[in-house]
Design goal:
The protein is an alpha+beta fold and 133 residues long. The chain is 19% helix and 35% strand. It is built from 2 helices and 5 strands; from the N terminus they run βαββββα. β3 and β4 form a beta hairpin.
């Protein structure tokens, strides 16, 4: 899991003055870049096309607001990976969703299994909620 913080920039907004719908996906991809660098998998850039995304927009943010994007690996398949994400502003939900990518290291081929080192680095860890005493 990684948490990425950034300010809403002018180019992130639309004519109504709040975030453009595509800005959320850019923030998620920036968090993904941080995550992959942090686990030694930066070589995956350009080799993981997006095959599906879904976003639920919860509230608006405006130029200068600080947003926090939390990105976690939700599922790791043979050749696909599902990220889940939350974007918040001052603890207020802005957007939630999922992004599915596939491992496609060759420009001419299709999806291929994840290498063992990538699988080890990105295997989701279970979330454990402590039981009240």
């Amino acid at each position: 899991m990684i948490v990425s913080r950034r300010r809403v920039e002018w180019h992130d907004t639309d004519a109504a003055g709040h975030q453009h719908h595509s800005a959320v996906l850019r923030w998620v991809e920036a968090a993904e870049a941080e995550l992959l660098r942090s686990v030694g998998c930066a070589r995956l850039f350009g080799r993981t096309p997006r095959v599906r995304h879904e976003v639920d927009y919860r509230s608006r943010v405006f130029f200068g607001d600080e947003v926090e994007t939390t990105l976690r690996v939700e599922a790791l398949g043979r050749s696909s990976l599902t990220y889940a994400f939350d974007v918040t502003c001052a603890d207020r939900p802005v957007a939630t969703g999922r992004l599915v990518i596939v491992h496609a290291p060759s420009a001419t081929g299709g999806a291929e299994p994840w290498p063992d080192d990538v699988r080890a680095a990105l295997t989701p860890t279970p979330v454990v909620t402590p039981t009240p005493a």
